[in-house]
Structure prediction request, 203 residues.
Amino acid sequence: MAPIVSTRCFVRCSSPSCSSAARPAAQDVQEYGSGADKHRPALARLLGGIAPGDTLVVVHLDRLAWSLTHLIQLLDTLTALGVGLRLLRNPIDTGSPAGRFSLHIIGAVAELEQALNIERTKAGVAAAARNGRLPGHSGLRARDAAVTQKLAPARQARALNRARHGLAPWLPYIEAQRPAAWETVARHIAEASGSDGQRCRSG
Prediction:
């Protein structure tokens, strides 16, 4: 019986509202965060569950790797697993030496482009500061209570979203402790938050 293979799509988004229309895979994984962020638990879980013969699909190279070194490490990992890599915007066959070489070149260019973007951003912020313009929301800088209250829900939603993705790798360990140790976990959470812990215990 032939082994079952699948196509896995990895999508890194800078915000939860990013478009995912270009995802052809039956199984896909989303991760939210900056391209320079090296902590990518969703990508780690995907690589942990991928199988020989599978194909990893990525829209663009900078959605996958944060540096050329990271790209080379990922390619070595995928090759060792017998997994193919497909780029939707840069159609390259990673199964051939020429394809892998081309991917390294593209990765180097992507890393250079990211570095140049960072430098341009820093230069723009410095120029704005020299002209008396500071980055960020003027109301928040002035600690305007009305502005802070107005923006609070959106800021809390972003913080909660980051927390959820940061907690993802730990949830299996926490869930494995229920129900035996959950009362202890709830008590520590309640002590830290100053609540009675009822919501934790009832979960």
Q: What stands out?
A: The beta strands are 7-13, 27-32, 55-58, 84-87. The first helix runs from residue 41 to 49.
